[in-house]
Amino acid sequence: MAKECPEHGMLKSLICSDADFYRNAEKYNQTGKKYLIKRYATSKNLGCPWDCGLCAEHQQHTCVGLLEVSGRCDQNCPICYASSNMAGEEPTLEDLVNRLRFLSSCECENPSLVITGGEPTLRSDLVDLVAEAHKLGYANITLNSNGVNLARNPGLAYELSKAGLKELSLSFDSLNDDVYQFMRGSNLLSLKKKAIDAAKCAGLKISLSVTVVKGVNDLQIGHILDFAKKMRIDGLIFTPIAFVGRLRKEFLNPLHRITAPDIIRTIVEHTNREIHASDFIPVPCPDSHCSALTYTFNTGEHLIPLTRYCDVSEYLGAYGERPKHQDPMVAAALDKLWSMSATPGSEHVLDSIRCCCSASTNLIDNVMSIQVHSFQDAWNFDLKRCMKCCVHVVLDDKLIPFCVYNNLYRR
Ligand code: SF4
Ligand code: SF4
How many whole angstroms from 116 Cα to the centroid of ligand 2? Predict the structure, then answer.
């Protein structure tokens, strides 16, 4: 991508290292489900991206609401997109419950909810907040966490689960403490493992969220995949690093960055082509360049992609030109699976998998999703993608697409 700024001149950024991958994603661009938006909180005034939101120009409803419950964090990571540290601010519980009510008032159905920060577990009332969200009808609640407090206080995972939390999304960049030192500022591996144990004991679903930096932890991708397989983790999410927040200059090279096909290629090679690049299907609810996803059956030894059982690309590709012989039940199930709102390992996901393939119960009980989600920064910022975003930060009276928030609205 090349763009010109009157102040800064020409900016160039690599947006995708594989032209075929990029072109193929175009086929999956689905028309947004705007009919699921109950009301727009703002109207068109200055034009995108200054009218968030959602304004009436926005092309997709909210699949995922991001509730930032704390600006505080105990880690001070050099790569933090939110620049969090212990000095951050914290909204009151009442403010947060009001934000949840506001979100409910904007959507026909409550979306999936991600409680994030800063580090949410620093709040002493986090269990109450989860209980309130559950009471308001939020069924899919995920907690983003660095895992430190959960490792030190495993009882917290149990309390959160009892209050209605369904999933822990744990930042997990490596199986090597040198990488944690470099990316997060301290040795975290043993705490991460303890947090996984705590979440498992509490009955939470677990996904590992891996921020990938070229030359720092890209060689860890295969090891993390093996670890997730062994630990029977429910979901893996790889995010190529976006140059936002407190990122140090040495990370910044927009022309020499890792992009989605690089991560997928590494997975293909690491699994000896047990997983193919074509098993990763673009997620059609946001712009189809934002994310690609596959579901695998984890036998403990092998990862067998769902796409061996069901022709997902035939169903989800070529929107508006779907062949007539499609089974509507399967089409509906795949729409639910290839959505940003799908919570890894949830009953919702497993039911949908049952609906679209004839795999044995044993396989369906051991599903692991693998997703690549490519957030945007100033260099690859693409308004077309922003206007179709379905992952929205929930403020008092506004919903703001996450990438727009990180680049333009975050204070
Ligand atoms: S990103 Fe969406 S909500 Fe924000 S101004 Fe653009 S169209 Fe409106
Ligand atoms: S958060 Fe960013 S990368 Fe994700 S769906 Fe929204 S625009 Fe796309």
Answer: 16
Q: How confident is the model at residue 20 (pLDDT cuts 50, 70, 90)?
A: very high
- Is the minimum distance from the CB of 286 to ligand 2 under 6 angstroms? yes
299, 279 contact by CB (below 8 A): no
- Find where tokens 């059982």 sit: 309
- Answer whether 53 contacts ligand 1 (Cβ < 6 A): yes
Residues 67 and 343: their CA atoms lie apart, in Å, by 16
How remote is the CA of residue 409 from the centroid of ligand 1, in Å? 12
Name the residue with tokens 């039940």. Answer: 329
Identify any residues that bridge with 372 across adjacent strands, giving them in sequence order: 238, 292
Identity of the residue numbered 152:
R
Please tell me if the CB atom of residue 133 comes closer than 6 angstroms to any atom of ligand 2. no
Give the model confidence (pLDDT) of 77-126 as tens digits: 777 777 777 777 899 999 999 999 999 999 999 999 999 988 999 999 99
Quote the Cα angle for 355-290-332, to 5°.
20
Q: What is the DSSP string of 87-112?
A: T-----HHHHHHHHHHHHHHBSS--E
Distance (Å, whole) CA 345 – CA 231: 14
CB atoms within 10 A of CB 359: 17
Query: How remote is the CA of residue 284 from the centroid of ligand 1, in Å?
Result: 18
Question: With bands split at pLDDT 50, 70 and 90, how would you rate the model's confidence at 182?
Answer: confident
The domains located in the chain, with CATH, are: 2-29+58-289+376-409 (3.20.20.70)
What average pLDDT does the chain have?
Answer: 92
* Cβ of residue 382 lying under 6 Å from some atom of ligand 1: no
Ligand 2 contacts CB of residue 280 (under 6 A): no
For the stretch 305-356, pLDDT in tens is 999 998 888 888 765 555 667 788 898 999 999 999 999 989 999 999 999 8
- CB of 28 within 6 A of ligand 2: the answer is no
Q: How many CB atoms lie within 10 A of CB 48?
A: 18
Instruction: Supply 360's token pair.
Output: 């044995």
